[in-house]
Amino acid sequence: MSAxxxxxxxxxxxxxxxxxxxxxxxxxxxALVLSIAADALLREQATAVGPLWAIxxxxxxxxxxxxxxxxxxxxxxxxxxxxxxxxxxxxxxxxWAVGALSASKALDGRAAxxxxxxxQGDPSINDDxxxxxxxxxxxxxxxxxxxLSCDRELKVGAHVRVIGRVSRFENDAYGRSRVLRGxxxxxxxxxxxxxxxxxxxxxxxxxxxxxxxxxxxxxxxRALIAGVVCGRSAxxxxxxxxxxxxxxxxxxxxxxxxxxxxxVGFVIEGVLQKTRCSRGLQRAILAITLVGYAAFTGASPxxxxxxxxxxxxxxxxxAGRRRHGLSALFVTMSIFVLLRPTVLFEMGFQxxxxxxxxxxxxxxxATYALGELGVPSGVASxxxxxxxxxxxxxxxxxxxxxxxxxxxxxxxxxxxxVVSALLAVSIVLAPFSLVxxxxxxxxxxxxxAARCALFFEQLFAAVPGAYVSVPPxxxxxYLVPCFLAVLLVWWPRPRARPMAVGLACLMLLAxxxxxxxxxxxxxxxxxxxxGQADAILIRQGGAVALVDCGLDERVVAALVRNNVHHIDxxxxxxxxxxxxxxxxxxxEQFSVGTIAVAADALEDAPAEVLNRPGVEYRQVRRGDTxxxxxxxxxxxxxxxxxxxxxxxxxxxxxxxxxQEGKGLxxxxxxxxxxxxxxxxxxxxxxxxxxxxxHHGSKVSVDGELLDVLKPELSLASAGEGNRYxxxxxxxxxxxxxxxxxxxxxxxxxxxxxxxxxxxxVMRCQ
Length: 765
What we know:
Elements: H1 3-7, H2 19-43, H3 54-68, H4 76-106, E1 116-119, E2 124-126, E3 129-138, E4 141-150, E5 159-167, H5 173-180, E6 185-196, H6 202-214, H7 220-230, H8 234-237, H9 240-247, H10 258-272, H11 279-296, H12 301-318, H13 325-339, H14 347-372, H15 377-392, H16 394-401, E7 403-405, H17 408-429, H18 439-442, H19 444-461, E8 467-469, H20 479-490, H21 496-519, E9 521-527, E10 536-541, E11 543-547, H22 554-561, E12 566-571, H23 577-580, H24 583-589, E13 591-598, E14 616-620, E15 625-628, E16 631-637, E17 652-659, E18 662-668, H25 674-684, E19 689-691, H26 703-709, E20 713-716, H27 729-737, E21 741-744, H28 745-748, E22 751-756, E23 759-764
Parallel strand pairs: 4-6, 11-12, 12-13, 13-14, 18-19, 19-20, 20-21
Antiparallel strand pairs: 1-3, 1-5, 2-3, 3-4, 5-6, 7-8, 9-10, 9-22, 10-11, 15-16, 16-17, 17-18, 22-23
């Protein structure tokens, strides 16, 4: 049969090995035990261990079914494997949990200055703050794994002494994720006392030397080379160029994984074939080289996973057995979980395993289906890999990033070969940069390839609609793995016409909510939950406005979960960071038409928000009005020109809505307090809703002010556990004594007010 004929043969359903049941049992029991251990580490108290009884009960049930139920005889091996996996996973994760609790207790009462921290991996960089996974030591003994944050870059293996604070992680999503990865405490370094780089091994010295010669901090192209060759992508991700890879769905190209090892293996194998070494010796050298490269790049879970699968395949081939990718994958995953159960919660491991599983199961099927639609075989092969991995990782990527790249298949088809070429030439030429006389020209060709890759990244990232924002808490994303499971069981023969109709219907269904929220959104005002900061969303139909932008990127997540796709106007009440700090992130993520501030306040605007292409800057004065759909925002304060630096300079807006028998009046006060509010309150008069000034401080309102405004509902935006005590008891008591209802984002999350014929309704997140 020719290659062309084979491409048009319906691929068989992949054989799922019993090792899948073993791996699944381990993962389930590990997840349960580690989650309970994380509760204990975060809450500083004993947690309920009752759910743990489900593990031995389930294991016993599987054994009984396998032993006594004749109908399940074909599944006997699966049932025994699942039972063994449950027990093994529970044992290793319980062992880790006991060690983690002991390590946490060992750090009680210890000052950071009395510990030595050994850097274990590359940093994550956020706002010039470097965060490292470190081993905390005292008297030469390892006590625990911690998360160290400081203001300078450290090398892997460095021994660091600091003055700082050792504390527990907060019981939130971030703290839980760090604890589940094995870090029992966080350390914030105030001052670094000493750094000893120690005596790194030969691979680490080679890596540090190569990174020094590449100098990733000096140029995005150099940062890309460092990420692709050395596995050090933190510097690239901290630059705007790093966002291009996220938008285009090509971030996996700079993460060392199976594709990297395949290219390195191809280069090494090409060299070995020129020698007279035996086939067995060539395989041994290839395996050792790949292991060395995985260690050289930092031994990321995806690289080690790929390396283990290659090793298993080489062993199987050497033994004369038929290789089976899924068996190698599940055996590798099981070994990972047994050796380090916390790897189960590392995103790199999750993404790597999910994408490889989908590619092994569905890539031939997707290639065949695309061929039925008339897609050329070469293009179909590339697209199927991207589509399979992208769909399989949706339940991981959407909650983490809140975006879905629509241009990913095309971007991967174009940029993937460029990055592969970059890696191939870099692993050959980059080592020559360690030689002084050759340093100038050794990176010339890699730099050309890197700049070419960045050119295409920027080109695709700039395409309108390259990605869509998806609420991180969307439940529909979990239907995708269910659909893939049904497809695996059903395995229907793809037909061109039904597939075309199905794709058209799917695209139509996906477009309906987008069009609804983009053009037909009902009138509403939402106080967004962005922590100890302010951000208020106003929308009606296709008109969208934002009053203040919070402190950081949390405002983007809040807008995404409220189905915002563009913003017509952003009002910045004043230049306190908790009101404008998230504006740069908003400008990067959304199309913004106008930025409006109080008269003359633009002169003191932060440089990060100025001179943005396509954005109009407007200064508004008392009495000016701005229409937002059927809403009308009228400026009530300040009376005179201001610089926007103080709370007393806050822009105050009276928001009115009258349409189809529905009416609503809301006063948005920014950080204004009683001294300012008394100046305009008589002019405002009776309102329906009051957005309390300065997060509900004790001087934001009093009984006299509330008697004039008569709000039925008073809202405060504040962060849980904030050090200011907002909202204050005095503010809450004043609202309740005036007969109004009080609500705060701390308790209710996003708070949405919608006008009705009988007044308004309040809806909480």
